[in-house]
Amino acid sequence: MTRRATLRCAIFLLTFLSLVGASGTLVTSQRKATTKQPKPRERLLSDYRTDSKLAPGDRYVAMDDAARLSSETGAGSGWSMPGKDSVSYAGLHVEFESEEAAEKFAETNPVISQFDRFADVWVGMEQGFLKAWEKTAATPGVVDVQLSGVYSVPKITANESFGRSQQSVPAPKPEEIIRNGVDDLKGEGVIIAIIDTGIDFLNGDFVDYENDVGSSRLLYYWDTTDKNTSSVRLDSKPPLSYPNGLPVGTLYDRKQLTRDLLAKKLPTGDLVGHGTACASIAAGNGRSDDLGRAETKGVAPKADLIGVRIGGVELPNGDLATALRNGYLLDAIVNWLDTVAGNRPLVISCSWGSQAGNSRIIERQLNARFPPGTKGRAIVFAAGNSAERPWHASVDVTETQMKEPVRWAADEDRSGYIEIDFNTDDITGITVTPIDNFDFEELAVRTDPVTHHAVAYIKAPEGDGGLFLKSAPGRSVKANLYFNYGHFTGEYKRPDGMIGSPGAASSAFSVASYDFNGWFKNVEQTSCGDGRIVPGGLSCYSSGGSVDSSYVKPNLAAPGQIYYATLAQRWVGRDRNTRGRRPVIDDRKQLDGTGEYIRFGGTSAATPYVSGVIALLMQKYMLVHKDKPAAEQLMPLAFLKRLLEQNATKDKFTSTTPNTMWGNGKLDKEAVRRMLDAIK
Asked: Are 53 and 145 in contact (CB under 8 A)?
């Protein structure tokens, strides 16, 4: 963890960016050379045009991972290449011109999900994978194709089947926030789904007791990461299978989870603890707290829960791969959640995202699934914790030579790529020049099929780098730069423009973080190094977004630190005689006095707080409309959006809103009261 607030968005991870490639060549220039010539320092971008529908940045990552894995077993990174005991699939997001074209494609291809004009599809990772990728892109009616991930699963045999704080004043007392509901509203009747590293479903905070008999509060727990191929299964059949017939993970319903409260045979629900902490902020009931403190109760403690685990797996060497690598299943998961929720209100809470530029297919998928007229559904994402290490830079490119280059620092032991989004498709005369003692590994330019703007992709080696941009005489263009495995330094870095995918979808709620509490175990805490925490101020790490006439990101800011969050525990011991449960975190500085709760914060924490508040709002709406037909008891998404945006608090910290850091304002206790009062 890089911050003292353990777990604070160490999990705000590059969900969709870890890719494995097979054989294939990358064409980055239309120029053909018979002899190898030294690369010119200044490159004319128009010479590097490609008409491929495949984003070159995705290729760079795929081929880089393939090279890394060719010298390893793949275990160290959580991936493995196809072998005699496994089969690998690549997940592709595909956008079509029409719903009919997507449906026709789905008839003859192994789709993960298909909705509206979008389809997610598996492509086998056999030799020549990039050609298969190109074949998908060449399908009639395809507009865009983006790689989401590559995943290796065991082969199955024929006999197997599967059923910004201010830092100059001392921290005052904590600000009051919503705990244990509001009056009689506690989230009853509403479902909150946590898509994350899992939920420790055996923890008392997620168990209801009546006459000393416990029952699980989870309606379902779907572990998409489990590769259990045993024919003796304790779970129900998952809603999705790989093309070879292997189920995607394991699925447990409430009866099976309740039975395991005593039997304790099921695997550990959360090896990392991030998903468990998020679930406790949204809906924990505080039963594990013998002291009965208000601080350990969630916003909507009587809401029902669904847990979906998409990452946080244990590697063969015992290390944890914290990446949420199954985030590529998001659309399929959302489709399943919508089905099982039926006519009940559903809030989907996702405390994660990816470092990605604009125009992502997954965002347009979400917009199709959640149009403004959607009733009883909402999806919430974290804005991110990158304000101190921004992965966005912005430059006005003119004919005048830049005095300073755009500089960056790549992540250790990892090359990455820079995406340069121009505000035009006309890049005539625009040049890019690497700084001295540095050069690009690859360079390609394409026209984004949706924005119709030029996008340049530069593959950069690990370490520090930089570049100069220059336009033709008399021209001025805007360039926004995004770095997938590193951050920008110097004068062009920006704290805004960093609401990553898929939280940038207009239909989703993206959540910034503000500080509400600077104390833990009666000790004053710091943030971002030795920065003092002042309740009410924007968290120093909270990523900013953008604001225009029709688009505000983040949508709003919510209390992000510091929480007492439920601590997940894991099974240890090789057999039933030695098996026991131990905390997934053993740092005493991060644990409270009871050993049951952990210090937790970040936009990862602000996100489930908003999800819990939305559950209260949906419950109030149902009660107000209880005499109407069931469909009319569900709150329309457009109404919910107006409710949140128009009633968010504006104060001395937020200044004038909307803005790029606070969005429409803060979701403090007074704002929640105003929202509830507005539902009549």
From this structure: yes
